[in-house]
Write a structure and sequence with these properties.
The complex is a heterodimer of chains A (343) and B (345). Chain A is of the alpha/beta class and 343 residues long. Chain A has helices at 22-28, 61-69, 94-100, 119-129, 136-149, 166-178, 196-213, 224-230, 248-253, 258-265, 305-309, 325-328; strands spanning 7-17, 34-45, 50-54, 76-81, 84-85, 102-105, 184-188, 216-221, 233-238, 241-247, 315-317, 320-322. Chain A has twelve helices and twelve strands. The two termini of chain A are 36 Å apart. In chain A, 43% of the residues are buried. Chain B has 345 residues and is α/β, with parallel strands linked by helices. In chain B, a hairpin with a 2-residue loop joins β11 (315-317) and β12. Classes of the chains: A alpha/beta (343), B alpha/beta (345).
Chain lengths: 343, 345
Amino acid sequence: MPEGSYVRIEGLKRYFDVSPPWLVRVIEGKPRQIVQAVDGIDIEIAKGETFSLVGESGCGKSTVARLVVGLYPPTAGRIEFDGNDIATRRGQGAHSALRRRLQMIFQDPFASLNPRWRVFDIIAEPIRAFGLSKDKVDLENQVDELLRQVRLTPADGAKYPHEFSGGQRQRISIARALASRPEFLVCDEPTSALDVSVQAQILNLMMDLQRRLKLTYLFISHNLAVVYHISTRVGVMYLGRLVEQAPTDTLFRRPKHPYTRMLLDTIPDLDMTGRQRAPVAGEVPSPLNPPSGCSFHPRCPFANERCKTERPKALSIEGGSVACHAIEEGRLAIEDRTYVVRG
Amino acid sequence: MPSLDKLGNKPPLLEVKNLRVEFPTRRGTLLAVDDVSFDIAPGEVLGVVGESGAGKSLTGNAIIGLLEPPGRIAGGEVRLEGQRIDNLPYEAMRKVRGARIGAIFQDPLTSLNPLYSVSRQLVETIRTHLPLSARQARARALDLLKQVGIPGAEQRIDHYPHQFSGGMRQRVVIALALCAGPRLIVADEPTTALDVSIQAQIIALLKKLCRENGTAVMLVTHDMGVIAETADRVAVMYAGRIVEIGPVRDVIKHAQHPYTKGLMGSIPSLGVRTERLTQIDGSMPRLTEIPRGCAFNPRCTSRGERCMVERPDLMVAGASRAACWLHDARGVGAPVPLAREVVHA
């Protein structure tokens, strides 16, 4: 990983207090309850690359996205963006200049656009907010250009969000995110709510825009095939921790952590190879009461006593890192996986 | 028409013929399911796949007699083991549903009553359809919970739905569908609300249960991966019609309809990374704006003059049947290139 990382996340933690009200706690004699949604994560993202976070629901991947754009303050840890710490400095001034350069695309295109605003105003809002236009004509030109960039027409600006399909709405979200001319986009499941043929259109659009505008993406998804397609590097999260990260090809060809292997096994076999999958037993434990040691040990076929008590540290390996005792001790061999090319 | 696949000459368990579902609205009647015909053999898993709005769930709901008004069956017939079930009165249909057709829905939380324990819901369903005493029904309920793989079924049988996790709730719903030993299960997006690792468990469970009990399944989903894992045959729906139907392997590996080809290409593959995914430009037409001729023609790169005016029915195409003039002896006619400016989805 190069020294001058563009986005650097260090020891990022975010705990949520989900305790019942004070009086209930006193009467029932219950302690506070804390969810460790994100529990110490280190990520570095180089300029122009796409870093993806994958994991099942409740693993904290969306919380990371929200922390990075500053929708939540972190409990602990640092988030550096182009050399500036954005986690601790929460005032006006310098922070708002940084904020222009970092935007977010949300999952649900039906909830993330104001239904009472025309598309023109939705897209113009960031330009107005950051004072990026000289006059009204300039503003109109910018919005028209943004609409064209996402393959809509300038005439669409006069419509309301409800007149568009899901895919078109996601295009509007992307246009809005691009309006402040950002360099770094945090995309939280941008295609999960879309049909596959529309998903392909949006993914192609995002990759085109990345090349043209030299964007850096933090991409959150639960769909491994999508992640494989779009990312440069991939991080796998489980119960608030990063269990493995690696360049995309390495992660898919030589997965190391047992959880990563399990996730890869769950991808349906579209190539009809007749491969037998062993569905992993068990479910993601509640983050309210995570298992001791390695949080994956109750479901892991390779767990031993050490896994139950000691939390594994990230170990650098093959251009990535993995947090697993079995790999560290050499109990678990790293094997190559082959994929059948479809078509 | 009997199915042509390996399950061959047995009479079909379910026959759907020229089914039409329509919604009367103030601005005219919308045809949401248009002339859909297929059948399911005993023990067979038929996948029905399509994007949102293709009419796949409506087809499923029409079969189990649960169309939401004002939706209604406007034509065609549904036969279960030779008996027509689409025109049964409400009470008679209630007896068919549950006893001979089980249903599994997408969201396991809303399919269960939160105020009743799991045992009460199972026992009630069993006793509605089978002549068993309360004790026998409870024993059967426990049996079913064990069959669907709920650990500690003896204790958990008296728990309430909120005490189960999503995957476990879906197992309970499957147990509920199996209560009276139905011959057919209509499963509408049974794994969509679940995480991938749980989805794999539920798919494996469904497959196991069908094999053991010889239950046929109509599996409605938007996820081609789930179909590939589970189904024997697959029907691909587009704008209310079946555009292709055939053995799952043939449809996935040698799609015959341009829409199916595009759909398969737009699913990211793990084998190879490409610069761009295949994409089908445009989006499915709204029901109010279904074009003349083939409904797919505004997005189809192989379209010809004939596609613009004449609507194709299913015809033999390779090992499958596809509704596309490309497979007709007369072909599509003179090519009609797509308009340059396609409205994107």
